[in-house]
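Standup notes
- DV: blocked on the single-chain target, sequence here:
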Amino acid sequence: MSLLLNYLPLCWFHNHPTDLMPSKSFMLNTIAFYLVSGIVVEGLIADFADGTLEVLLRTFMAFTSISVFLLAIKKWQLFFQLFTAIFVCENFIMTWAIFAEVLDEVMVARHYEYREAISISLATALVAWYLSIIAYILRQVFAFKINISLLLAFCYFVLTYGLPMAFMDL
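- DV (later): unblocked, structure below
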């Protein structure tokens, strides 16, 4: 629990990812939470089987993207720290996405007039926060300029969310 409490400030743009050393069990728990929360969110949006497959593809793409990136810049030793920092923050945002999906379901059931505008606004805010956090982590770890960090965060987003979503649409 103390390790989680050390990681959560990253989600608010505090702490330095390389100052945090995750244990293997913490990293595995982070991945498990990522899978479960992702399946919950996708299950609320689509059917369970498609949602599960998409989350598994996203997880594979995250591992692959981070691995290829670190191998390309010859910084493989940072894998556990970078991967865990990104996944803890993704899990934090995914938790908020679950609340947003539940709120959307409640608004649909109550025929709330501004449901669509609220849902789109929440989704946009969560994606912007996600991109900002990933860019922050990359900037902290590699001392990239902010525009490079944002570009890499966007590329990571496209690889981990866009490609699996496109694959599922085939």
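- Follow-up: The CA atoms of residues 16 and 40 lie 30 Å apart.
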